[in-house]
Write a structure and sequence with these properties.
This protein is 49% helix and 10% strand. With 342 residues, the protein is α+β, with helices and mostly antiparallel strands.
């Protein structure tokens, strides 16, 4: 009797184990099928021919890749130095770009608090291609102002093609080629090599400042001619030419030209009647420290925006320049005491 009970117990345990294995296999199959369906629906390319991503004649045929934000990139996923890699990132993006000494766009900062990221992106990587402002075309990333315009104005996701540079920040350097300077800097000495490079850097910085002024003035001329989109390109170039590690006489970390160029971008979008882009540019401008609130409230540049988006405009401005007296309270006193009534 005891032997039969033991055999029965073994049989029951075996059947139970088989049942658990079957249920686990079914669950994993379902999970894999669900994950596969989700991935394919997210990474579904735009239709063209056999489903390849459509681009302009200036760009090669490319595929659309999924957004990897929130996923841990393995060593196999990470591109090697010199390789090109493609990403799709939904707006808002957490990538900030700087204009390199060759006029191209480079990643200068990654901030997940600001927006979405891709784990393959690193500071120093150079942008090679970007999706156009609208449609399926892809632009060669050769014009910094045009790149920033596309990022601001495109609705939905952005396509990027980057070149991996392994954190190389030489695109920001002015002139550090002098051998003697490098030797002295490593040795902590100060000699003729250091003085020579410092002088060259000073001269180069003045030349860069002059070039930036020319770009800014060109933007003003285009604005006055009513060529607002072209003016945005120039003002975006001015933002990208902001000198690194700037400290003003008043210890401000942003140049006045940066603030003014940001305001001018908001004005251009206002003239183009692109309200959300104008509000976004104005927000960036005020965040940078622009404080000419009288011009913001009454200047002609934002007249269209103030009229079309009065509530949003006022709410945004009040965050940075809150009125001393609440307008509703003032109006209430007028009504209470009969001011302004005939």
């Amino acid at each position: 009797m005891a032997s039969r009970r033991a055999i029965s117990a073994v049989i029951c345990a075996s059947l139970l184990a088989l049942g658990l294995i079957f249920m686990r296999g079914s669950s994993e199959t379902l999970s894999r099928a669900t994950a596969s369906a989700t991935m394919h629906s997210f990474a579904k390319p735009l239709p063209r021919g056999q489903g390849s991503f459509r681009v302009s004649e200036r760009a090669m045929g490319i595929r659309k890749v999924p957004n990897l934000r929130g996923c841990a990139a393995t060593s196999a996923d990470m591109p090697k130095t010199g390789d090109y890699y493609e990403v799709n990132i939904e707006k808002p993006i957490g990538i900030s770009f700087a204009r390199g000494n060759d006029g191209r766009a480079y990643i200068i900062k990654l901030d997940e608090r600001k927006g979405n990221l891709d784990p393959r992106c690193e500071v120093g990587d150079r942008l090679d291609e970007i999706s156009a402002s609208f449609g399926d075309d892809v632009w060669k990333a050769e014009n910094f102002g045009q790149i920033m315009y596309a990022i601001r104005t495109r609705v939905g996701g952005l396509y990027f093609k980057f070149e991996k540079r392994d954190g190389d920040m030489s695109f920001l350097e002015i002139d550090t080629k002098d051998v003697e300077f490098r030797k002295e800097r490593r040795g902590g000495n100060y000699g003729a090599g250091t003085r020579e490079v410092q002088m060259r850097n000073y001269i180069t910085s003045k030349e860069n400042e002059r070039a930036r002024n020319e770009v800014f003035n060109t933007g003003l001329e285009l604005y006055e001619q009513g060529k607002y989109e072209d003016a945005i390109y120039k003002f975006e170039d001015v933002l990208g030419m902001e000198p690194p590690n700037y400290v003003g006489d008043d210890f401000r970390r942003i140049t006045p030209m940066y603030e003014i160029a940001g305001y001018n971008i908001a004005c251009c979008f206002s003239k183009l009647r692109q309200w959300e882009n104008s509000l976004g540019a104005l927000r960036d401008c005020l965040n940078s420290g622009y404080e000419d609130f009288e011009k913001v409230r009454n200047g002609d540049g934002l007249a269209e925006l103030r009229e079309a988006e009065e509530v949003k405009f006022q709410a945004l401005l009040d965050r940075y320049d809150e009125p001393v007296f609440d307008p509703k309270l003032v109006e209430g006193f007028k009504n209470l005491f009969g001011f302004g009534k005939k």
